[in-house]
Amino acid sequence: MDTIEDRYRKQTPTSAELAERAERVMPGGDTRTTTYHRPYALTIARGEGPFLWDVDGNRYIDLLGNYTSLVHGHAYPPIAEAIARAARESSAWPARSKAQIELAELLCARVPSVERVRFCNSGTEAGMLAAHVARHVTGRKLILMARYGYHGSYDDLELGLLGHDGDRTVLGEFGRAESFEHLLASRGDEIAAVFLEPVLGSSGVVAPPEGFLPRVIEAAHRAGALFVLDEVITLRLSEGGAQKRFGITPDLTMMGKIIGGGMPVGALGGRAEIMAAFDPRRRGSLMHSGTFNGNVLTCSAGIASVRELTQERIDKMERQAERLGEELKRAAKQAEIPFSVRQFGSLMNVFFTNVAPPATIAREDHRTMAQFHLAALNHGLFIAPRGLIALSTVIDDGLIDEVCARAAEAMIDVARQAA
User: Fold this and answer.
1) What's the CA gap between 337 and 347, in Å, rounded?
2) Nearest in space to 343 (alpha carbons), one of 237, 238, 193
3) What separation in angstroms does the CA of 239 have from each of 74, 112, 195, 313?
4) pLDDT in tens, 81-95
5) Which residue from 139, 266, 375, 419 has the least number of CB within 10 angstroms?
6) Given 276, 308, 340, which residue is the final one in a domain?
């Protein structure tokens, strides 16, 4: 009987050939560490709506949306039309566009804590910008963040995901407000800002316990530090982002992914008096440039993406995610394999352990997760190698039925291989 990997190789020979070609010109054959998996990653040919097709013609139901950024799926007509209209006028120019103003107005209207916006080109850049302005405003150098939190690949903010402190980074324990309070009480005069995701993404869709976020915000302000909320992933959880859902008001908000409609994007928003640090009319203002900041293609796509993400659609995705989580648990039980899932809004992460682990990137179920990931691909389901799932507005209830059936077949394959 063929193994899961044997079937994968038989179904994707052209992807295998292109993987070898890619490895000759790119380290590991790609430019994103998170997309790598054994024996090789797929090469995608196109996407439309909730579907992807690889270069061998295999169709996949996309349950990842380019790591949460494509909240309306692929080639979503309002977004595609907005990009096409903008492209006819050029892609970027060395001055603002009307689209840039409109997207900024839309974000300020949608997220009450955001009074001014500064655009960049990725969530990582938004984090770098937040650290820069926090250090400028406070005159301090340290960043406090959660162990196993993730705010992009900037050195000072990437250390959290790796789980250890650095020269300019100290770590608290997500969900334990007292650990942040202790650090802010003992080292508060060194800490420029506290960075937190409202729901941890990379370490498994971990939601905060009640009261955690407000206590950390209070402790940060008591110490004279800024509180930065990373909404790069979680802005999809409500029309006003996770901050509206949790009833909190950050000083600065990092944004990205869905606000660009599939185009490269990042943004930092916050209180007017803090964001004024970037105002070139002020003496001693911060230098912040970038050739493609607020480019017209991204902003045009972003306007369509944000406007189309209504609360009604957000609620529908959450109901679908809740149902999918229950069906996956039922399928795992029938296949007699350990399984758990964390779900919050339209985001979820699956684990092949009886209890979902605490926030961490170290997993005991690494081998089974890798098998299920390949098995899911064999059955036409595209999820992240680490088990992350992010639903989109273009997935209907009928397609959820199909996802459940295909996932059950993948779990049977995992159980057979383990036997």
Assistant:
1) 22
2) 237
3) 21, 11, 22, 10
4) 999 999 999 999 999
5) 419
6) 308
- Report if pTM > 0.70: yes
Together in a domain, 102 and 119: yes
Task: Classify strands 116-120 and 347-351 as parallel, antiparallel or unpaired.
Answer: unpaired
Q: Quick count: other Cβ atoms within 10 Å of Cβ 163?
A: 14
- Give the per-residue pLDDT at 98: 97
Residue 57 domain boundaries: 4-71+313-418
Which pLDDT band, with edges at 50, 70 and 90, does 164 fall under?
Answer: confident
Q: Domain total for the chain? A: 2
Query: Can you tell me the distance from the alpha carbon of 211 to that of 217, in angstroms, rounded to the nearest whole number?
Result: 10
What is the overall mean pLDDT for the chain? 97
- Give 362's pLDDT tier (boundaries 50, 70, 90): confident
Please write the tens of the pLDDT for every residue from 165-217: 999 999 999 999 999 999 999 999 999 999 999 999 999 999 999 999 999 99
Q: Which of 264, 280, 308 is the last residue of a domain?
A: 308
For 87-123, how does the pLDDT look when each residue is reduced to its tens digit (9 = 90+)? Answer: 999 999 999 999 999 999 999 999 999 999 999 999 9
Beta-carbon neighbour count of residue 366 at 10 Å? Answer: 12
Q: Specify whether the CB–CB gap between 300 and 83 falls below 8 A.
A: yes
Output phi, psi for 320, to 5 deg. -65, -40
**23 and 155 within one domain:** no
Amino acid in position 228: V
CATH of the domain at 36: 3.90.1150.10
